[in-house]
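stage 2 :: seqdesign
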């Protein structure tokens, strides 16, 4: 394929982006906090809020009061909404629900109870990054990422000419295993979250900011 128009530069660019997107989704499903982003929004009474244009995966919402205290809103399921809406009364939001939005290209987040003031909250989420943006950030510190993407491009090129890709696929799997090991948390014995099972909704609440429910 050397000096051949069989594969164009545009195709190579697309193969590279596809390889990075594939790897990004794998990494985010395992180590989402490594790529965590943040966006600040000002709330308006009775409105749902579109998530950022680069939104990929949601992590949480933090509200800092005027006195400096933090509250981490709890994500709820659809069937829990009637129990946290507090009737029609507005107030400081304590819970949130994420849903799709068929009228727009982005999902939205709804807050309960409806905010009674122009609160400022921080949205923590994993952004969808382009290949160029990713290598301008901390991703360049992870060994094996470039090799994984290059091998993905090679596989797609070999596949286009209907050649055997088995060796390349095996080598790429080895690089993925190496990348995953490099990103594995050092203390896997620590639980990601503590779930309250007794005394709900009062009494015995675990003293953790992410368990701030009522």
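stage 2 :: out
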């Amino acid at each position: 394929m050397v000096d051949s128009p069989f594969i164009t530069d545009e195709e190579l660019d697309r193969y590279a982006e596809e390889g990075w997107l594939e790897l990004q989704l794998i990494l985010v499903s395992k180590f989402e906090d490594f790529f965590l982003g943040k966006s600040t929004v000002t709330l308006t009474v009775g409105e749902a809020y579109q998530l950022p244009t680069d939104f990929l995966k949601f992590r949480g919402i933090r509200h800092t009061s005027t006195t400096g205290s933090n509250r981490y809103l709890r994500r709820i399921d659809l069937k829990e909404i009637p129990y946290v809406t507090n009737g029609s009364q507005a107030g400081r939001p304590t819970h949130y629900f994420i849903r799709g939005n068929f009228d727009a290209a982005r999902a939205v987040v709804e807050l309960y109870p409806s905010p009674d003031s122009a609160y400022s909250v921080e949205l923590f989420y994993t952004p969808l990054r382009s290949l160029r943006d990713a290598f301008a950030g901390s991703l360049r510190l992870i060994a094996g990422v470039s090799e994984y993407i290059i091998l993905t491009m090679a596989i797609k090129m070999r596949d286009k000419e209907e050649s055997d890709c088995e060796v390349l696929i095996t080598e790429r799997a080895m690089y993925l295993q190496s990348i995953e090991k490099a990103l594995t948390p050092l203390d896997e014995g620590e639980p990601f979250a503590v779930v309250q099972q007794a005394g709900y909704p009062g009494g015995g609440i675990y003293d953790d900011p992410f368990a701030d429910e009522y």
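stage 3 :: structure notes
- Residues 88 and 128 are 36 Å apart (CA to CA).
- Helices lie at 9-31, 81-84, 131-136, 145-160, 166-183.
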